[in-house]
Design goal:
The chain has 162 residues and is mainly beta. The chain contains 2 helices and 14 strands.
């Protein structure tokens, strides 16, 4: 487990939570304690510039590259008046460098095993095993091979700040 993923895991710690949040900020990451994060999170390039909305759920084995943003499409509206409810990134999804996932209303779901390409702006839900790219993002393909059977990849040395 890398330093960044260890910090993310401990961000809800009763006594050290605030210190952990500040340490993540030094890496340029904003991961609120309210985010639900499954096991096997993999963060590349120390997650520099990554921002997650508090109403975010990451499934098991999700991969995040640097510069990923998950949030609301209406940040000018007070949270309690927003039509956005939650963003759910299902198991094994990959959000490439600079990907933006912005929810307009309800729940936006990034399907299991889906890849959101670099600098893509995803504004709608996806199906499992799809590949999305562009701004605005559109489906450009499906993942080949048996991505469902793959377990979360073990962290490689230097992958996310160890």
């Amino acid at each position: 487990m890398s330093l960044v993923t260890a910090l993310i895991r401990h961000r809800r710690h009763r006594l050290l939570g605030r210190l952990v949040q500040e340490a993540l900020a030094l890496y340029g990451m904003e991961v609120p304690a309210a985010c639900e994060i499954g096991p096997g999170l993999l963060v590349f390039h120390r997650g520099f510039g990554t921002v997650l909305h508090p109403y975010t759920t990451l499934g098991a084995g999700v991969t995040l590259y640097n510069g990923v943003t998950i949030g609301r499409a209406d940040p000018w509206v007070p949270q309690e008046e927003s039509a956005m409810r939650r963003v759910v990134v299902e198991d094994g999804a990959v959000l490439c460098a600079g990907a933006k996932v912005v929810c307009k209303e309800g729940v936006l779901t990034v399907g299991a095993g889906t890849v959101v390409g670099a600098n893509a702006v995803l504004t709608r839900s996806t199906g499992p095993g799809e590949i999305w790219a562009g701004a605005p993002a559109r489906r450009v393909g499906t993942r080949a091979g048996d991505w469902r059977a793959a377990s979360p990849a073990p962290a490689r040395p230097g992958a996310s700040g160890s």
